[in-house]
Amino acid sequence: MPIITRNDTGIRGYLQANVIAFDKQWNLALTDVLEVWKRKGPRKRKVPPGLGTPVGNGTAAAVSPIPVVTEKPLGGGIWECSRHIPQLMVRGEHIVIINIVER
Q1: Closest Cα partner for 3 from 24, 32, 41, 42?
Q2: Which candidate, 27, 65, 76, 78, has a CA 20 to 30 Å from the CA of 43?
Q3: SS3 state at 30
């Protein structure tokens, strides 16, 4: 089920996922999530994308593995990023539209 998401300035990307639960504010509990978004080209950076600051050994990094972000250049300085997340909770304010796919 494709779910279009937004950020503060416009459309961010989309999620391909199975919806487990939702409420009246459209907060969603999702499983088997493929998240795809577009961003400007990478600058020189010391930390790989999606990782933020490194986490020391024996902390949260051991409990929850960090998803691998794959990047693909689209041209014009735009990159398409994607990652797979086993479970995800999305706040309703970030939802633009949910496309229901009949099987």
Answers
A1: 32
A2: 65
A3: strand
